[in-house]
Amino acid sequence: VLKHTMYSVSKSFTSTAVGFAVSEGRFKLSDKVISFFPDKVPDTVSGLLQMLAVKDLITMSAGQSPDPTSAVIPQTDWIKTFLNTPILDTPGTRFLYNSAATFMLSAIVQKVTGEKIMDYLTPRLFKPLGITGIDWEENPQHINTGGWGLRVKTEDMAKFGQIYLQKGKWNGQQVLPAAWV
User: Fold this and answer.
1) Number of helical H runs and strand E runs in the chain
2) What is the bridge-based pairing of β-strands 3-5 and 150-153?
3) Which of 28, 99, 135, 149 reaches 20 to 30 Å from 6, CA-CA?
């Protein structure tokens, strides 16, 4: 059975990891992004960067323009590069497709849980759904890319879609918090 690269569908799995972490009380959508990485912020932190919250990452309204992903990927430290990318619009006010913002969600989940999102999702999502043999690309700091690079089987993608259609339930069990769905 072949695994398929999920490209940006990977973002939905990252969002699911965020949903589990939020429901477990590990952080809130209102938490400021710089609070997770104080050692990675620029020397001068703009007011807009201070405002940037987790919810702005997940809604792709970080305020950066253009999408910084192509500038982030070639760098050694993706978190630092993202945080050093100027924010031009008030976070939360303007949508702009931003895969690097989804990477930052992966980095936040890893920071607060101590696990890559692939490993964090294993007992919470992959094992209950019987999803095995997955792999997910990583950045130079061994953080799953979050916004791309997940590879799963087609049948596993169908299971993932089905659990959302069932408001987070799988085989009668509430696997994913219905409030997150």
Assistant:
1) 9, 5
2) antiparallel
3) 28
d(CA 57, CA 98): 8
> Can you give the pLDDT at residue 6?
80
- Encode burial over 78-101: b for 16+ CB neighbours within 10 A, e otherwise: bbbbbbbbebeeebeeeebebbbb
Confidence of residue 1 (pLDDT cuts 50, 70, 90): low
Distances (CA, A) of 112 to 23, 70, 106: 13, 26, 10
Q: Other C-beta atoms within 10 Å of 168: how many?
A: 19
Dig out the tokens for 46 from the structure. Answer: 């703009």
Distance CA 140, CA 138 (A): 7
51-78 mean pLDDT: 97
What tokens appear for 102 in the block? 């989804």
Distance CA 96, CA 172 (A): 37
Of all residues in the chain, what percent carry a pLDDT higher than 70?
99
- Put the strands of the sheet holding 3-5 in their side by side order: 3-5, 150-153, 135-136
